[in-house]
Amino acid sequence: MNPIPAPWIRTRLRAAPGAAWALALLVALTACLAGAFPRAVDRYEDAGLRRAVERTRPASTSVNVWAQRPGLLMSQEEREEALRPGTLGAQNAKVLAAVPRPLVADPGQSTYGARTAMPLAAPERWLPRPSGLPPQLTLSTQAGLADHATVREGRLPRADGRVTAATPEVEAAVTAETAKSLHIKVGSVVHLPGVERAPLAVRVTGVVAPRDPDGPYWATQPLLRSPSLVLTPGSGADGDKYWRAALLLAPEAAPAMLGTPGNPWRYWQLAPSMAALHAYEADGLKSAVASLEAGPALRKVRTLTDPSTVVDTDLDDVLSGFTELRGGVRPLTAVAAFGTGTVAAVVLLMAGGLTADRRRAELALLRARGTSLRGLAGRLLAETAVIALPAGALGLGIALLALPGGRAFYAITAAATVTAVACAALPLRAAVAHRTVRIHGGRGDVASVRPSRRRTVAELTLVVVALGAVETLRRRGASGDQLTSLAPVLVGVTASLLLVRLYPLPLRGLSRPAARLRGAVGHLSLARAGRTSASAVLPLLALLTALTTAAFGGSVLAGVREARDQAALLTVGADARIEATAPLPSGLPDRIRRTPGVREVTAVSIMYQARPTDLSQSVPVAGVEPQDYAELAGRTGIGPFGADELKRRTAHGPLSALASPTAARTYGTRPFPVLLEDGTTITVRITVVRDRTPAVAGDNFLVVDRAGLNASASRPTALLLTGTRLDRAALRGAAPDSADVQLRSEERARYADSPLQTGAERVYAAAGAAGAGYAVLALLLSLLRAAPERTALLARLRTMGLTRAQGRRLLVLESLPQAGLAAAGGALTGWATIRLLSPGIDLTTIALASRQAPAGEAVLRTDALSLAVPAVAIVLVTVATAGVQAWWTGRRGAAPELRAGDAR
Question: DSSP code of 273?
């Protein structure tokens, strides 16, 4: 093929600069969105993984490498040398290098050292002894103390000379918490038992404060930072207690531990680097951790350290929990991605088709003059590439700069795909339309053209694929494969093809009645609607796919909000809750009623340790005022009941009780005694059974009339508040210091504290907004496609007496059939999609994954706004565009459209 001449391309671009700039803007915007999507997903998934690791205690996420006491086959000098910082430091460098990728250790938070595995009893009488037992102390020589602690008093410990197992005295430091709890001061001396030698004297030379107490350096072994009060084994909650604490020796003093019965172990503490944690490497991270725990990496570490080395970490459990959460979120995000991507692809194809239709006469003339099909496609490809390639590169660059930190490969691939589609749309459309040389084309009206057999086969194949995807999703759920993620899109595509086939039927049926109407506008608009190009399947496909995706996405977000609201309501029991372990002050309800936003206050006395019948298990018992509590249950929808069902009927008979199904199955409907926390006993009989109740969360409870309790048990311990915009500060100020204040809004926010959840929601909302924008653009392109013909029609009809008002009505009525079809079909398709796919969609993961919630599963429900708003917007945009076009044509006048030789 001959090279495409540059002057020809320049001429074509100069002939239509507006179209060229519009295409460049469309490609740049689409390439930017396509490149930004995988980067955004990477960013929020990485943030979710890091948050999951940060929220877990470093004691669980750090990789701890332990080696037992140097072997007995070694000489004393070799055992001492194995504990010295030079040997441990050299081994630490090798262990860090042996960590398999993609797991990366943070050298700043990782450390090494030696510590006694067995605590040592300190005999000093000045040390605190809560139960008369001496404190148990651990010796540690963790490296890097000067870099991770600030000296509050004294100085850091040192080792004078060469320390051995027989050294009589060493220096140590303690943290400020240890010094305060054990009454240790600078200069204090603690004697620890020795083995075949005198007790080891440990002199405290400094008190230090950790710079990052919650960081891996200190929190991996919390005993080094904070002492703990320990119960003796088997002594029960009120048994004997003793202190456990740690003394921080200088690293050079580690050999002294060999002279004690503490059995010193060497350790290398590896903290994972947060910056190196990437969600897309989660499987590789789990493999690396498994290799360290029991695999090739462990064998290598043992070669570098000691044959007895073991590796301990719970990082693999954290990674598994994250991948499970991500597995539940990803399929929902993929649905939005496929939907928006389909609409964007259709718009790009429509842009190419619009250009091919606008230049139909020119391209037909080129073919008639002998231009080959390959040459024609090559010219158009070169012409489009000159515009699309720089625009695609610009859009990709903006995406990479706006969202740093994600992977570049997928962003480049997505932007390149968009650019390729934009470049190929016009040449392919032109090649198909002009594969045969012809001067005049036949009519392609939607009301007259019959679909070909090939189209019928293709549509039936698509229908079968869509049905298979829907059935697969209903059976297996959103498992994450592409077929199930494409199910909503396939339903929309199938619906659009069906509607295109059904569209001519009402037009044919209305043609005859419209012909008998007075006036020409109605009949003419209907005839014009019937002459719409049969290629209108693309805009209808874009509109229905966008409406289906918007409806599905809106229902997902609405389902997530509803699930969180319900879970928060079940946890709190009302809009707010004030609760204490002791009875609340008698004047508190009145003070709370006067706080801003509070409408109703329901007082409840709750006894969590009440024991019915045989005293074998406790059941929470709530004493309530039946009328107020029934109104609260009715307002919240949590186990509503009638107040008369709970009111006390006789002074001496058993109290009527509202019970959970669990309590009802356990105790039946016969009267049974209940021992309350104050020692009194009441007799109750279960008369009402409800799954839930506002006062008590869980599936085991009893609710009785407070009038049947004695004065002590009936005093309220909790207040359930109903209102809007409740002020936590005001409630906290009115409540006693010992009371706990819970707000439903705050509880709801806790269910969405994972970046994986919030990021997926933001991406979902952005994808829905982008899809809606492309749908409007597709509608405008379809209207722009027919704009010249409509303008010429209005100009000619005005010469025949058509008024401007009639012209506006003509264009509006002509556009309404397609707009109404798209709006009604989109709403119906969205509703059907939600109904079809809801059994396979579980929103629990994205809605409630970060916390245990009492709401059960979050299911997909139809959201009326997501169905109605986009459909109405389509009609309004269509009507507004038609009105603007009629107004603009009237301003220009009819002369430009009636020039001699004007070919339309």
Answer: P
